[in-house]
Design goal:
Structural class: alpha+beta
Number of helices: 2
Oligomer: single chain
Radius of gyration: 18 Å
Strand content: 25-35%
Distance between the termini: 25 Å
Helix content: 10-25%
Largest sheet: 4 strands, antiparallel
Number of domains: 2
């Protein structure tokens, strides 16, 4: 990962990089957080890591989201490695999103509930 100074156009490699695959970088709206997928833990599974970026542009040590069960990341074989930092809640319930995924309409218009549709909307 690299950081580009938009004023000077200078770039630098981040010290928090690992020798493993890192991808799908997502910045917070205030530019203080970056989320990214990395295989740094075991080289096999991409996990979502978060790093804080201070006012001087120093990126701090990445960490995975803590789980209630400390063995979660050892046992989880599913990969959710396309992080997206959002500033607002999703405009649909988890149940309606799951229903839309399981049975999309033929038109491609995902019906989330009786009053909303994701087609043509910018999701914050």
């Amino acid at each position: 990962m690299y950081l580009l100074d938009l004023k000077t156009r200078q770039h630098r490699r981040l010290a928090v990089n690992s020798p493993k695959s890192e991808s799908w970088h997502s910045w917070s709206s205030n530019s203080r957080w970056i989320a990214f997928a990395s295989k740094r833990r075991d080289g096999l599974f991409g996990r979502i890591y978060f790093s804080y970026v201070d006012e001087s542009g120093q990126v701090h040590k990445p960490w995975v989201l803590p789980q209630k069960d400390p063995t979660f990341y050892d046992r989880c074989i599913e990969t959710y490695n396309v992080p997206e930092l959002a500033s607002h809640p999703a405009p649909a319930s988890a149940r309606s999103l799951a229903r839309a995924i399981r049975s999309p309409s033929p038109s491609g218009d995902a019906k989330l509930d009786s009053t909303s549709s994701m087609r043509g909307q910018d999701v914050p």
